[in-house]
Amino acid sequence: MNNLVDLDAHASPALATPRRANRAYLLPLIVFAIFALVPLSVLWGSQSFILALVTRIMILALAAMSLDLLIGYGAMISFGHAAYVGLGAYSVAILASHGITDGFIQLAVALSVSLIFAFFTGAISLRTKGVYFIMITLAFGQMLFFLGTSLAAYGGDDGLTLASRSMFFGSKFMKNDVAMYYVAFGVLLGAYLLLRAIVASRFGRVLRGIRENPVRMEAIGFAPYRYQLTAYVIAGMIAGVSGFLLANQTEFVSPAYTAWQRSGDLIFVLVLGGLGSLHGAIIGAAVFSLLADILSHYTENWALIFGPILILVVLYARGGITGLFGSKS
């Protein structure tokens, strides 16, 4: 009985001690408050690249949060998660190249394609375990990468430039960088609240139970495969939305979006921020992007510096950056 109480308390901060609940809510509030106020820096005369940088951080955080549902809560280590980012981005680019610039249609296609791909690849991948699961998700991701490079009509290996950003209700308001920023902010906040509700729900508790002991969960009447596949599809669709935003923010798509290195970056972000922490994925995305931006100004081989930093985090901050604050969600 005590174990069940502890599990529910972990799933819902409201059931935890007041101090723990405060930590669980305070850090995300601070993070989102900072994001909400960033555009004010432009009004004060700062350079517009700040908006572009933080918008990219939020888009990366969105993809990382979706992967955290798989790795942090479901122990499903996918090395092909960037494939869904690519699917979302190419949905925008291919439709736009044929004159379909309505954002609702593009978003619906991005979600549909991501759902279908996640369902069928997940149905196959989840029949494997451990390193076999990692390798088969990597294979599916690379399959999309090579498909992208072969699409000569859509830029092939060189990628494809968008003529304009998506339109909503016939308006090109996303052409404005501040509007684009707040669209990304709104989507990130909505996805965070959705994933937090999923994690705190009965579904989320079952998913964590499967992570700890799938045999026992099956013995008490839960089908691990069905729950894992559902989580896999949800994660893929959210990553597809991040691809939709990325295509609009950069006004460019490339097969590189689906490469295994991008999936590796998402895993680095989670390790840095803290596995099993949704706002940890956001903080990890911010730290990863800022470090990459700063270090790349000094050397092209910035990854050689970033690597040891990540190792130190793994060795001395087992819960990532959020672990240092004792805050998980």
Automatic annotation (TrEMBL):
Annotated membrane topology: Multi-pass membrane protein
UniProt subcellular location: Cell membrane
CDD domains documented for this protein: TM_PBP1_LivM_like
InterPro entries: ABC_transp_permease, LivM-like
GO cellular component terms, semicolon-separated: plasma membrane
UniProt KW Cell membrane keyword: yes
Superkingdom of origin organism: Bacteria
Molecular functions per Gene Ontology: branched-chain amino acid transmembrane transporter activity
The protein's name: ABC transporter permease
Origin species: Tardiphaga robiniae
